[in-house]
Design brief:
The protein is mostly helical and about 425 residues long. It has twelve helices and four strands; from the N terminus they run H-H-H-H-H-H-H-H-H-H-H-E-E-H-E-E. Strands 1-2 form a two-stranded antiparallel sheet. Strands 3-4 form a two-stranded antiparallel sheet. Helix 1 (about 1-45) packs antiparallel against helix 3 and helix 2 crosses helix 12 (about 345-415). Its main location: membrane. InterPro entries: Ostalpha/TMEM184C (IPR005178).
């Protein structure tokens, strides 16, 4: 029965593979054309590098997802490699979206000022509503991150950055680990069995992604009023739908296959996931054209204009009025504004070099923050051992002094009487 079912599933897969490739290829073509055009529009009007380099990174998620999905659908042997690359870029795209929100608020220094103002205002309101003596001390506790994030002030930015970067690190490590386990034959993609590595990696990534998205949501809840000029809700929904939906879509298909709703044999499971992503990326590309439009960047801001030169020409002329000849002065003023022009090469260099430097700095900051408590713990242990060693040595010295004093005392008590020692 099992061989017949296996042959039936293989036959179904072979019959559906060609139409799926054609339909998926059409959707991928739409996604590639729209996304690449949008990226080139931003590179042509590259007037705000601080924001646009992160927009390009987020928009690039669509063509990368679409290309890897159609490649995996065309050659199932490449499905794991494509899935690993897709996971790498998903983590970077989530980080890029967080950096984009910070850039729209004016940079990290400006964000810290805004968060501190929000914290003071929230504390003032809470004290007016119901004064609490301990509230002023506990308003920066970690518990308030869940209930009152606005009270955290600049600590909210640190938690948000830590949440995004930890997902980048874990996603990268888990993708590499999945590759190693697959080479050893114990990964079991889509298999929820205890002797496979897939379920454990899925649980770790699920919690990591949920935490990263929750940090992003809390940061958005505090700053959404300041972000109203960029219409943040549409951007947030469109991006979150790609990251969240594709992940849970893959987990859902794996669960359906585990419970027998969908067949596990053949390549139907990975093929279905790749085919759905091809369709979804075309929809996401259409949404990005409107949500991440390049129109707001077509005009340079006042601060972006270059050198302004003003040239005045003066000439003396003579005017004849009847028999009299009068002299006059003719003036002409010419103003020139040097507006900067950015080439595609310079734009890409800014995205890769400066964006990469920002990523490295945040990763280093996160690793230092994670290793900080460990270092403090090791230091305390060393101090404890050192203290115990000093105390024990002091005790030994005191004991030796006491013994010496006892011997001296005993010698003083000894007296010689004749030939007898009393």
């Amino acid at each position: 029965m099992a061989p017949n079912n296996l042959s039936n599933y293989e036959e179904i897969y072979n019959n559906l593979r060609q139409p799926a490739l054609i339909i998926g290829g059409c959707f991928v073509l739409v996604a590639l054309v729209l996304s690449i055009l949008l990226i080139f529009q931003h590179l042509r009007s590259y007037t705000n590098p601080a924001e646009q380099k992160w927009i390009v990174a987020v928009v690039s998620m669509v063509p990368i997802y679409a290309s890897e999905s159609i490649l995996s659908l065309w050659n199932p042997r490449l499905s794991l490699a494509c899935d690993i690359l897709r996971n790498y870029y998903e983590a970077f795209a989530l980080y890029s979206f967080g950096r984009y929100l910070i850039a729209c608020l004016g940079g990290e220094r400006r964000v810290v000022e805004l968060l501190e103002d929000e914290s003071e205002e929230s504390l003032r309101k809470s004290l007016l509503d119901g004064p609490d003596k301990n509230h002023g001390i506990q308003h920066r506790s970690f518990c308030n991150f869940f209930w009152h994030p606005c009270m955290l002030g600049k600590d909210l930015l640190t938690i948000e950055k830590f949440g995004l970067v930890q997902y980048m690190i874990l996603k990268t490590v888990c993708a590499f680990l999945a590759f190693i386990l697959e080479l050893c034959g114990v990964y079991g993609d889509g298999e929820f069995k205890w002797y496979y590595g897939y379920p454990y990696i899925a649980v770790v990534l699920n919690f990591s992604q949920m935490w990263a998205l929750f940090c992003l949501v809390q940061f958005y809840n505090v700053t959404h009023e300041r972000l109203q000029p960029i219409k943040p809700l549409a951007k947030f929904i469109s991006f979150k739908a790609i990251v969240f939906a594709t992940w849970w879509q893959g987990v859902g298909i794996a669960l359906l296959c585990t419970f027998g709703v969908l067949p596990k044999e053949g390549k139907l499971q990975t093929g279905l996931q790749d085919f759905l992503i091809c369709i979804e990326m075309a929809i996401a590309a259409v949404a990005h054209v409107f949500v991440f439009s390049a129109e707001p960047y077509h005009f340079l801001p006042v601060s972006a204009y270059g050198k302004i030169t003003e040239e005045k020409l003066e000439a003396a002329v003579k005017i004849d009025e009847g028999d009299e000849e009068k002299s006059a002065m003719l003036q002409e003023t010419t103003t020139e504004v040097e507006a900067p022009r950015t080439s595609v090469k310079e734009s890409v260099q800014d995205i890769v070099v400066e964006g990469g430097q920002r990523v490295v700095k945040d990763v280093a900051l996160t690793i230092n923050q994670a290793m900080g408590p460990v270092g403090k713990g090791v230091t305390r242990i060393q101090q404890t051992f050192h203290h115990k060693t000093v105390v024990s040595s002091d005790d030994e010295e005191e004991e030796s002094d006491i013994e010496v004093e006892k011997e001296v005392t005993q010698k003083e008590k000894l007296t010689v009487k004749g030939d007898e020692i009393v």
